[in-house]
Specification:
alpha+beta; six-stranded antiparallel sheet; elongated; three-stranded antiparallel sheet; 13 strands
Length: about 170
């Protein structure tokens, strides 16, 4: 009696039960990378490589040895393990990045204050104001618009630039 067991996608092992004996066999399988799948691979030196696939041979982004490469050719000779998007985002966050899966672009990870902590914004009088972030509609609006700063100095520099632009336009 021969029974074949299902193994995870991209696994290079076939597991069979033959006459009450489990037999494992290496099976050469072509890796089929699907767009936006995330993978962890380990090279011959034991270094980890995190990837977000673009097409069969390329990735949108690869994190390797503390560096971020985009786009990057995929070395299919490695063993790949599929990981979740959350695991990939966690690895990118260590480098101050986030991948926008909807628009397929790598972005800078923006700082946001924890709930009940302060941030700074420029008010309508072009003055720096301190505000406590409650992650509610008003705070979300300031964050999404980019009028949201970690320090008073960052916000003041932004206010000064806006005032300079308005002064130039006023003089024209």
């Amino acid at each position: 009696m021969k029974q074949i067991f299902e193994v995870p996608e991209n696994c290079n092992v076939q597991i069979e039960l033959i006459n009450n004996t489990i037999v494992t066999t290496f099976v050469e399988r072509e890796i089929i990378f699907k767009e936006l799948d995330c993978y962890l691979s380990i090279d011959e030196d034991g270094k980890e490589h995190f990837s977000i696939c673009k097409e069969q041979s390329f990735c949108y982004v690869v994190i390797s040895d503390g560096m971020i490469y985009m786009p990057q050719f995929v070395d299919a000779n490695r063993t790949f393990t599929k990981i979740t998007r959350e695991e990939m985002q966690s690895e990118l966050a260590k480098h101050g990045k986030v991948f926008d899966f909807d628009n397929k672009v790598l972005k800078e990870l923006r700082w946001r204050a924890e709930i009940a902590n302060p941030y700074f914004l420029m008010n309508f009088e072009l003055i720096t104001k301190r505000r406590i972030d409650e992650h509610e509609d008003t705070d979300n609006m300031f964050f999404k618009s980019g009028n949201y700063f970690r320090t008073e100095q960052e916000c003041q520099a932004f206010c000064d630039k806006v005032k300079q632009i308005l002064t130039i336009n006023k003089n024209n």
